[in-house]
Amino acid sequence: NVTFDAFMRYDEIELYLRQLADKYPTLVTLQSVGKSAQGREMTVIRVSASDGAAPRAILVDAGIHAREWIAPATALYLIDQLVQHADEHRDLLDGLDWYILPLVNPDGYEYTHTTDRFWRKNRGADLLFLCERGADLNRNFDFHWMQSGASTFPCAETFAGKKAFSEPESQNMRDFMLQANKDKRVKMYLTLHSYGPMILYPWGYDYRVDDAPDAKELAAIGNEANAAMVAAGSEPFVVQNSAELYPAAGGSDDWAKGVANIAKSYTIELQGGGASGFDIPASRIAEVVAQTFQGFRVFAGHAQRL
Ligand code: 0X9
Ligand code: ZN
């Protein structure tokens, strides 16, 4: 079963998702969006209380960056609430289908458990013998690719890949997002990272570009989500345009809005902890995920009205 007093491994997460699908066949559907570079399945769970497709959908993913362990844990808590506590959260499923990918980068995630706690990238093919392999999946999406905040040097932490969508994980996300949103049903994309706390909205690909046309609305929704999380005991989130943090092109958030036509897109930098910010202790998982869930309620309420 799912636990929030320890960080779960890839195999445990997969098993938990399969158990949910077995136990709640009318509420839950699993789909593989494809395999990672090292052949691990990337599983998306769909939670839906509708017969057929609801008029709207929301997509949440986590773990693009391997070391940001609190992100998959937060996605798992969301899944647990929506499925195992569905009676309390009927409102969140009203006319809204949820697609949740708790682990976009399973190879990198496992590598942070076995070998290098602070690995960020995927575990794709090495291009040099000088350094460790892998590309930064959040620099590999094809929207203003390589325009800023990314590196062509394979050893760099922010190596953008040898071309846009060079990596199987980002290709799989691309194909899934385009397919899921072919009828413009997906209203919102939330991609979970750490650490902040920050709520970032497009565009992030460069300085001094025009704000997204709906920047004011993006900020207003973000502020409302922040208020709900603070009310639940969270540290306050900084709500800002993501280039304000630093410009970085090739992110999944910009691509979701700019290419996949998902109206509202956010990177949520979850609360940090530990010595580095990324290594928040397991003892804090339960409080952080529960606080963040109150933000999801707000985001979902808006997705239902878009
Ligand atoms: O740099 C990133 O990819 C994100 N921060 S993190 O510390 N989790 O690595 C921020 C991404 C913001 N979005 C874009 N710049 N598009
Ligand atoms: Zn990240």
Molecular structure report:
By secondary structure, this protein is of the alpha/beta class. 32% of the residues lie in helices and 17% in strands. It contains 8 helices and 8 strands; from the N terminus they run αβββαβααββαβααβα. The chain has helices at 10-23, 70-84, 106-114, 168-180, 215-231, 242-245, 252-258, 285-303; strands spanning 28-35, 41-47, 56-62, 96-101, 186-194, 198-201, 238-241, 264-270. It has an 8-stranded mixed sheet, sandwiched between helices. Helix 5 (215-231) packs antiparallel against helix 8 (285-303). The chain is globular, with a radius of gyration of 18 Å. The two termini are 35 Å apart. 51% of the residues are buried. The mean pLDDT is 96. Zinc ion binds next to loops. It comes from Megalurothrips usitatus (bean blossom thrips).
Main pleated sheet: 8 strands, mixed
* Ligands bound to this protein structure: N~2~-sulfamoyl-L-arginine, zinc ion
Q: Which percent range fits the helix content?
A: 25-40%
What string, H for helix and E for strand, traces the elements in order? Answer: HEEEHEHHEEHEHHEH
Mean pLDDT, as a whole number? 96
Neighbour order of strands in the largest sheet: 1-2-4-3-5-8-6-7
Termini separation: 35 Å
Low-pLDDT runs: none
* Classification by helices and strands: alpha/beta
The strand count comes to 8
